[in-house]
Amino acid sequence: MTTTEIPTASRTRQDAAVKKPPRRRREGAAWVFLSPWVLGASVLTLLPMAVSLYLSFTDYDLFNPPQWVGLRNYTQMFTEDPRYWRSVVATLTYVVIAVPLQLGLALIVALALKSMRRGKGFYRSAFYAPSLLGASMSIALVWRAVFNDGGTVDNLLGTGGWVNQPGWALFAVALLTVWQFGAPMVIFLAGLQQIPSELYEAAAVDGASRWRQFLSITVPMLSPVIFFNLVLQTIQAFQVFTPAFAVSAGKGGPADSTLFYTLYLYDRGFVASHMGYASAMAWTLLLAIGAVTAVLFRTSRSWVFYASDTDGGA
Fold first, then answer.
1. Taking the model in full, what pTM does it have?
2. Which parts of this chain are annotated as the region Disordered (predicted)?
3. Cβ 56 vs Cβ 265: under 8 Å
């Protein structure tokens, strides 16, 4: 190595060090770009959650300063409020009915669309449209008119208005949710398109029927997508509000049959002005949803199949 090569190499390293920004400067730039999200999450999510948690231990009516009462809201909720337990039962019944029916219909339609050769894009958009419209108050009011006395269902079946019968009102609300199967349908369709067609061809050569192919190939290969839709739709079902509010005119009737949890929470917080009690209900709902989600993840180990499982076993 000559004497002229040493300062040249040293100068190259110095130039690279000058061109590379310091680590603190890079971290500072990252925080600048993250600041809108951090600010939004702090002001719009974390701070309201902290205030809500504090209010759940107080007696607060929206007009006077909150008064600390400790666990009184929670004890009253679990031991002294029969309407609270009726709202829990109505919500659980709704979740058990609406979620399986919605996912089952979504999977059936996705299977039908997968086998179509023409018009798949049109039908996919048409079936997805209710998912965009169904959460609006206007559609819920139309649904109420359809299932009301003298409505379409009453004229066709002669059973009277479902929304006015305690035994049928909840099913009317559940059907509105089932009608909004477009979002899980699109996810199912995307998952079905990822299943290799060679698996079906090999099963057909072995003499497997379509039902056997569905049970042995489609369901295991689609199980991660089924699990994803199940978790997502279950969480959404526990938070349903607009359909029940519109169908029951905000009362949860008839006979509290559509008194869903969020509807009763709204009644306690904004109608009766018991915001501390409503905050306690909100945190209980959060913990309940977290527990149900944890159970679903725990049980998924026995029925959800991932491609990496076979790779690891090999």
1. 0.83
2. 1-22
3. no
